[in-house]
């Protein structure tokens, strides 16, 4: 979720001029008469953990003299604003946050924030003199706890093998650690007895390159019975019946 928070520390004359501005101002930082920033989120890239790390691109408009950002738990931000107000929180960002040294005028800066576990809000503040505006973006960092050792039956590979299973702290989600290839996990999201497997890169084929899996399944007894479609740039390997026997607790 993203939203703008705008607070102006300005006199009546300037406030009156703002009232006459178009409602479209602020949707594009390059067209705003006030300092403004936008936060874009991207996967952090190789060497990072996309469950807990996030790449941010912070873009500023021509009116921005400097900018700062602060990443903290959403609950902590809400508590601060409830007591002190949103204007005070923008001061908090500029005083305790990180200054974006590459931001001045129309500009961008990329940063990677790591090790996030829980519900976080990233707030960026654009500054021009006494005028500040803020933009926020949210990120949920998943905590994966070791659940145990499961057994995986794969028709794709015509094999049965053990696999480490981890469980999300916030939901009935399971992560299979490197079931097919080192460094590539498989996440299964449960909703009651229904399983959803969103498209994810699970292994590399020597001929076709990256192979992705997606599909659905159902929990019966202690087994998640899945129908997965494995695809690559050349097409599909077809639907495969895969079974995960969950660890017995």
Automatic annotation (TrEMBL):
Q: Specify whether Signal is a keyword of the entry.
A: yes
Q: Which UniProt keywords apply?
A: Signal
Domain of life of the native organism: Bacteria
Q: Which positions make up the signal peptide?
A: 1-22
Which PROSITE patterns does the record associate with it? PROKAR_LIPOPROTEIN
The name this protein carries in UniProt is DUF1735 domain-containing protein
Question: Which organism is the protein's source?
Answer: Bacteroides stercoris
């Amino acid at each position: 979720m993203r939203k703008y928070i705008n607070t102006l520390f300005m006199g009546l004359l300037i406030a009156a001029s703002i009232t006459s501005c178009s409602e479209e101002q602020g949707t594009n930082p390059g067209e705003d008469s006030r300092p403004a920033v936008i936060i874009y989120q991207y996967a952090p890239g190789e060497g990072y953990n996309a469950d807990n790390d996030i790449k941010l691109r912070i873009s500023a408009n021509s009116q921005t003299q400097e900018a700062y950002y602060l990443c903290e738990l959403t609950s902590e931000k809400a508590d601060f604003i409830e007591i002190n107000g949103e204007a005070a929180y923008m001061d908090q960002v500029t005083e305790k946050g990180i200054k974006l040294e590459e931001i001045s005028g129309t500009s961008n800066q990329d940063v990677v924030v790591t090790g996030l576990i829980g519900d976080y809000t990233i707030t960026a503040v654009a500054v021009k003199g006494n005028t500040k505006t803020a933009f926020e973006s949210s990120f949920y960092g998943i905590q994966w706890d070791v659940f145990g050792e499961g057994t995986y039956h794969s028709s794709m590979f015509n094999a049965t093998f053990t696999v480490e299973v981890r469980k999300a702290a916030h939901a009935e989600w399971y992560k299979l650690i490197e079931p097919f290839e080192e460094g590539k996990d498989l996440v299964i999201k449960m909703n009651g007895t229904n399983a959803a497997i969103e498209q994810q890169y699970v292994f590399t084929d020597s001929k076709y390159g990256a192979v992705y899996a997606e599909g659905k399944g159902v929990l019966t007894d202690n087994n998640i019975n899945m129908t997965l479609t494995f695809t690559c740039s050349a097409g599909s390997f077809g639907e495969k019946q895969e079974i995960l026997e969950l660890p017995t607790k």
